[in-house]
Amino acid sequence: MTAMPAVQAPSWQDEILPTLKSFDVKHVVYVPDAGHAAAIRGAEQDNDIVSVALTTEEEGIGYLAGAWLGGERGALLMQSSGVGNCLNTLALQTMTRFPLLMLVTMRGDWAEFNPWQNLMGQATEAALKLMGVRTWRADHPADIRRLVHGAATMAFNGGEACAVLLGQSLIGEKKWVK
């Protein structure tokens, strides 16, 4: 039996956590997702960051509101399918104006293999905008640092809700594994 080689994260994935840390992000909350694997692993290994695996995405909004009240910054990592779970809870940010930074890996996008993901994937950006969230879409590795930096600036300096949508073409095609 031969060992499988370790899968190396695409270089753009390695830019996310350092960019968050440059904004003094101390909390990374997430629902486990392969597209966020490098940032999640990095946060879990970093003694300066509290990383929390969530049961459901909307918990992250409340968690980050509490972190902000405690004087600390955080970011929510999730898939586009989880955005639907957050819509009602986004009113908390609107009413309190705490900084909310979300990084959303897209499903139901380019080359989606699972039709169940398509509806929310196609509605994600519009749904976020309807709830007052500013959005930017990253489809190329060169977009990551600039867009995450810009969204973090607006969130943390302006008390905005901001989301960077990480396109499925950036993440790579997913396939059913038998």
Structure report:
By secondary structure, the protein is of the alpha/beta class. It has a single domain (13-160), classed as Thiamin diphosphate (ThDP)-binding fold, Pyr/PP domains (Rossmann fold). 43% of the residues lie in helices and 19% in strands. It contains 8 helices and 6 strands; from the N terminus they run αβαβαβααβαβαβα. The protein has helices at residues 13-21, 37-45, 58-69, 80-86, 90-96, 118-130, 144-158, 168-171, and strands at residues 25-30, 50-53, 73-79, 100-105, 134-138, 161-166. The chain has a 6-stranded parallel β-sheet with strand order 2-1-3-4-6-5, sandwiched between helices. α7 links the parallel β5 (134-138) and β6. The longest helix has 15 residues, at 144-158. The mean pLDDT is 92.
Strand line-up across the major sheet: 2-1-3-4-6-5
State the share of residues found in helices, binned by percent.
40-55%
Outline? globular
Alpha-carbon distance between the two ends: 19 Å
Reading the helices and strands in chain order gives HEHEHEHHEHEHEH
CATH class: Alpha Beta
As for the number of domains, it is: 1
% residues in beta strands = 15-25%
Outline the low-pLDDT stretches. none
Major beta sheet, specifics? Answer: 6 strands, parallel
Q: What structural class do you assign from the helix and strand content?
A: alpha/beta
What CATH architecture do you see?
3-Layer(aba) Sandwich
Record field, number of beta strands: 6
The CATH superfamily appears as Thiamin diphosphate (ThDP)-binding fold, Pyr/PP domains
CATH fold title: Rossmann fold
Protein name: Thiamine pyrophosphate enzyme N-terminal TPP-binding domain-containing protein
Pfam family, one: TPP_enzyme_N
GO molecular function, one term: thiamine pyrophosphate binding
InterPro entries: THDP-binding (IPR029061), Thiamin_PyroP_enz_TPP-bd_dom (IPR012001)
